[in-house]
UniProtKB/TrEMBL annotation:
Pfam families: APH (PF01636)
Organism domain of life: Bacteria
Name assigned to this protein: Aminoglycoside phosphotransferase domain-containing protein
Residues covered by the Aminoglycoside phosphotransferase domain: 64-271
Length: 342
């Protein structure tokens, strides 16, 4: 896992990005407007028009061909009525742009700017958000896009760390006297039980999915509409699994199910012709794979000697969040039942 070097929003960086993306008169905001685990968003203005410049933290999984597949999906989704930012290409037609060593040697991508704000907890618990979510997912899944260039599904949806790997991690955390190591160890029986639900994807049922449809990746426009951002994880997946994952992320984020909202999203999805179903607990495979792999990765980053302190600190926060909100099997059962009895 290699991390980025330092990126600074200097006039030289703004000019370089402007030249690569064919924009004149570029300037960068002094502070990033937002950051997540994968990147940081900077506001880039060019002759009065705003753009979102994403600085990508991790170099390893960046692949121009995969990105082009995502852009095809995003373009089809936009045509099907899903609000989303537009990915912008360089003058050479690439979406991925590497800054030179003197500007930080990082990958960046450029998107149209969304004039909106992140969702508040009240926004994402609202009834109209539950309806929007079902409708949006159905539009994505109805495309049934099979992208031959998309490659294999990401292994984090199908495979989780083994008991031995967790044990090694716990030993490393103990060696560094990490205070939440005991808490993590106490969760191991639950982690083991949930891990059993993580199963291989049916290769015949793969369609392009967003694969990160969480409230953090949805913005509210000034006009009130919802916009789905962060298509950087999009790839082949299962409509069933993506529906189940979205129901958990939106309506049971703390492991407790809001069954009325689950039913509302499932009903909106069915009304809009969504093909997915939460047939049984194995449909939560992708969600659980993401949660458990995220817990493992973030706990590892938290003690990684080669990670920046900024990343380590964020990783510690994420670990605590995931540990506090791990879903129980009965919460999954409740969500599954409410989705099917919509
Ligand atoms: N095109 C855009 N215009 C304006 N703001 C944006 C745009 N895209 C993203 N944002 C804001 O920046 C935040 C981070 O962007 P994004 O989700 O793409 O980054 P990330 O690091 O990949 O996050 P994650 O941890 O979810 O993977 C978003 O939650 C959103 O609030
Ligand atoms: Mg995001």
């Amino acid at each position: 896992m290699s991390t980025r070097q330092a990126f600074a929003p200097t006039p030289a960086a703004a000019a370089y990005v402007g030249e690569r993306f064919g924009l004149a008169g570029t300037a960068l905001g002094a502070e990033p407007t937002a950051r997540g685990l994968c990147g940081r968003i900077w506001e880039l203005t060019a002759a009065g028009t705003r753009h979102a410049l994403k600085e990508l933290f991790w170099d390893d999984d960046q692949d121009e061909q995969e990105i082009r597949g995502r852009v095809r999906f995003e373009t089809a989704a936009r045509a099907a009525g899903v609000g989303c930012p537009q990915s912008l290409p360089t003058v050479d037609g690439d979406y991925l742009c590497r800054l030179p060593p003197e500007l930080g040697n990082v990958y960046v991508r450029l998107y149209s700017w969304i004039d909106g704000r992140p969702l508040t907890p009240a926004d994402h618990a609202a009834e109209h958000a539950a309806d929007w979510l079902g409708d949006c997912l159905a539009r994505l899944h109805r495309l049934a896009l099979r992208d031959p260039g998309a490659g294999a599904p990401d292994s984090r949806f199908e495979r989780v760390p083994t008991a031995d790997q967790w044990q090694e991690l716990l030993d490393a955390l103990r060696a560094q006297r990490v205070e939440w190591a005991d808490g993590l160890e106490r969760l191991m029986p639950a982690v083991g039980e949930l891990s059993e639900l993580v199963v291989p994807l049916d290769r015949d049922a793969l369609v392009m999915c967003h694969l990160d449809l969480t409230p953090a990746n949805v913005m509210r426009e000034r006009t009130g509409g919802f916009v789905l951002v962060d298509w950087d994880n999009a790839g082949p997946g299962s409509a069933d699994h993506e529906l189940a994952a979205a129901l958990m992320a939106w309506h049971a984020p703390d492991g407790r199910a809001r069954t009325d909202r689950v039913a509302a999203t499932a009903a909106a999805y069915a009304r809009a012709g969504g093909p997915g179903r939460v047939r049984d607990l194995s449909c939560f495979s992708g969600y659980l794979g993401t949660v458990l792999n995220n817990l493992y990765t973030q706990a590892s980053v938290a003690i990684a000697a080669d990670a920046h302190e900024e990343h380590r600190e964020l990783a510690r926060t994420k670990v605590r969040q995931v540990m506090a909100n791990l879903p129980s099997r009965s919460a999954l059962e409740q969500v599954g039942l409410s989705a099917e009895n919509r």
